[in-house]
Amino acid sequence: MSEILDWIARTSHDFWEWIGKTNPDTWAAAAGWTTACIAVIASVAAFRQVRIAREVREEQAQPYVVAFMEPSQAEQHILELAIKNFGTTAAHDVRVESNPPLVRTASEHEKESETVKLFDIMPVMAPGQEWRIFWDSTLRRKDAGLPDRFEITIYYKDSHSKEMKPTKAVLDWTVYKSRMWVSTYGQHHAAKALREISSTVSRWSEFGGGLKVFSRDGDAKDEARKLTPEDLQRLEDINDRVLGRKKDPELPAPESPTVNPAGEPESLPALTEDQQDSEKE
């Protein structure tokens, strides 16, 4: 520790001794060199800032084409492949490559999967412009055994025909197969309902023009639906047979005394001896 303190003391003594021996001209020269060094450092910093600002302006004024997949506005289980230019300038000679090739599940008339057809080359894609195509449905693709992961590479040029750095995207179906969503009805569903109403109303027209009208007499139809006594009796007999109920045989109605033309009741026939004995008992 003492050696360090001795070194600091000697250095300080030499420094002050050198200052005392230095003349004003030497100080002026040193100040000039110092100013020059500061100017060089400031120039380097300024040049670097200009270069960074230029790179930022170039990045902001260049196309930026990206591929992505997202649910369709019509139905959430339908996914579309979209290619969009997010840059501020137009992209030229846009080409798309996929590894493996894009495929979708077979349609109703096909037995195997089918290829998703992309454009060969798009001459110009304006800023904000996008290109979409139906890719597949999560409901049909879930158990189709098709690849889930696709690597998309997009090649394009800027407005000066400079080849831009290709943009790459990895599109994975795995995150969409088990996805749940809430259905939101919008303009598409309203238009679909209007088309169904139009199709239904069009079938009401009579041949040759005009509207077919159906009339109904409610009172007459309700009266026709009423059950007659015979129908009620028939239903009661059916219930008795189904439930196994026995009905007492109907007793014959007593004979009413007949009236002669003179208005006096005729006498009843005389009872036999057996009948008289049974009545006495």
Notes on the structure:
This protein is α+β, with helices and mostly antiparallel strands and 281 residues long. Among the domains are: 2-60, no CATH class; 65-177, Immunoglobulin-like. Helix content is 40%, strand content 20%. The chain contains eight helices and nine strands. It has helices at residues 2-21, 24-60, 138-141, 174-177, 187-202, 218-225, 229-243, 273-280, and strands spanning 65-71, 78-85, 91-99, 103-104, 114-115, 122-125, 130-137, 149-157, 167-172. A four-stranded antiparallel β-sheet has the order 6-3-8-9. It has a three-stranded antiparallel β-sheet with strand order 1-2-7. The longest helix has 37 residues, at 24-60. The mean pLDDT is 77.
Quick recap of the structure?
The protein starts with a helix and ends with a helix. It is of the alpha+beta class and 281 residues long. It has eight helices and nine strands.
CATH class descriptor of the domain at 65-177: Mainly Beta
Gyration radius from CA atoms, angstroms? 52 Å
Sheet/helix structural class: alpha+beta
Portion of residues in helices? 25-40%
CATH topology of the domain at 65-177: Immunoglobulin-like
Largest sheet: 4 strands, antiparallel
Annotation, overall tally of beta strands: 9
Q: State the order of secondary-structure elements, H for helix, E for strand.
A: HHEEEEEEEHEEHHHHH
Strands across the major sheet, in which order? 6-3-8-9
% residues in beta strands: 15-25%
User: How far apart, in Å, are the first and last alpha carbons?
Assistant: 155 Å
The CATH level-2 architecture of the domain at 65-177 is identified as Sandwich
**Average pLDDT for all residues:** 77
Discrete helix count: 8
The coarse overall form would be elongated
Poorly predicted parts: none
Biased composition (Basic and acidic residues): 229-250
Region (Disordered): 229-281
